[in-house]
# Entry
Amino acid sequence: MPPSRDRPRPAATTVPAAAVDLVDRPAPGSWLARWLAACADLRELFAHHQLLDAVIQEVSGRRIRVDGRWLVDFASCNYLGLDLDQEVIGAIPGYLARWGTHPSWSRMLGSPALYPQIEEHLTSLLGAEDTLLLPTLTHIHAAVIPILASDGTIFVDRRAHKTIWDGCVLARAHGASLQRFPHHDPQALQELLRRHSKGPRLVCMDGVNSMTGNPPDLAAFAALARAHDALLYLDDAHGFGVIGQRSRQEPCPYGVRGNGVVRHLGESYDHVI
# Structure
């Protein structure tokens, strides 16, 4: 819905007066120039975007109420609609009564039976050797990437999701070296793999790109990982649940099982996580 001309705008981000006086002075590319540019971008964003720091007062399906106005919600990460699915909601009270609102243990000490049960179901759905369940993607990347990379080498797609990059930076702090390759460019990756042989080696990228919706040439990247004894680490947050394996007679271009990009593109989990 178009913004109302009468609706108060969020307070704009202000640039300190001392900094404003220096707008034309800092050298291009300097930290000060970058900081001033970021402040200007934020000020522009806050002036025109209704959902920055918005307080959502009510939800009704794909509509939300903000400042007393109902808006169509295109910002939610509830991709599959499961947050509002009545079957899911109806199943929760029984689990709450039995397990409480939080498992209360580190899984290294005590793992509620719910976790291995879900992992068994996911392993069967994915057709993978094994599955580990963590609560968010940020936790997954921060926990798994440093362990897999150790003090070896990480090769990361330049357009990989920021949460992947954050996990790679954490791994670098623990001793791994980090190399970036152009988006969806297996030839560039191959050259880097030849030049940087220190293992273990981990190639990190999205399964389905969060901005374009495009998958990589998975066969090419998986073949490179196998040929160079590297692990291909795929963040399939934007594919899982939507795309999945297909048969030759499959009428839907996305497949029917929602079991992820690896199965959708006919690949195996050999050297693939």
Remarks:
- The longest strand covers residues 201-206.
- The chain is about 35% helix and 10% strand.
